[in-house]
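Chapter review: from sequence to fold.
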Amino acid sequence: MLPFHQAVKDDFSAVNQLIIEKLHSDVGLVENIGHYLVEAGGKRLRPLLVLLTANALGYKGKDHLSLAAIIEFIHTATLLHDDVVDMSNLRRGRPTANAQWGNAPSVLVGDFLYSRAFQMMVGIGNMDVMAILSDTTNIIAEGEVQQLVNAKDPKVNEENYFRVIDKKTAILFAAACEVAATHCGGTAAQRDALRLYGRHVGVAFQLVDDALDYTGDAATLGKNVGDDLAEGKPTLPLIYAMRTGTPAQAELIATAIRNGDASQLPAILDIVQATGGMTYTLDAAKAQVQSAIAQLQHLPDNLYTRAMKELAEFSLARSF
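The token string follows.
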């Protein structure tokens, strides 16, 4: 458990228990895959943001626990579908669900998790929450399709890249904060600030994730290094290196992206480092974290708000 989890450790444990309860199904395969995913752990930053936001605003009810579980179910559903689309075989240091059970069960259990999340939303009965999360899941789907369109296209520019990560990743971080603020008594100004905080943290998280694909190691990351290149994903370190490198360097990277070929990974790593692509990406992430922290001035200064600052800083400093 990371330090900022400690602020809401009892709530966090309660959410984990609720997730297990809500995974119940009469179909054994649903529960098997669901429990496999839950037991894989992960940082659970998105549900954690729900808990921290609710507590920062002084909320005393229990609905924030359901909201946190809903956010985690939506996130897990996207992971199941992502791994099928990307043909990934390793996540969080273990074989992916599609590697274990096949693509069809992974897609269908992802659908189960989406629909369970919406069942739980109905149980909460807040139409504003329903509106935020229905819009969010739609935007995530758009982002996933756009990323698919961008795959193996070395002409993708920085603006297009940021548009995709905003839709695919940052929007759920933003929604986690916004639904908690909406349901747990936040003012309009606090709702806006928390949505922006979550969005900036989400962008920073994805930028660091994309950098780690070229600087981390599989044991620490829990996934294969170079996966993005093997999938032909034009991420920011590569986009910057192609823009600033020599024509020969740019063509080497472009060819690897077009072919989804990681065989030249060592040479590409050298180019990314030599052109400053990694520094550029991490500087962009740092700016996002600073923007996120600036939004916290709209919240009361308490244990939970300070934990949110720590969480934002972690998104930049993490190695996994």
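Two observations follow directly from the output. The chain has a mean pLDDT of 92. The longest strand covers residues 90-91.
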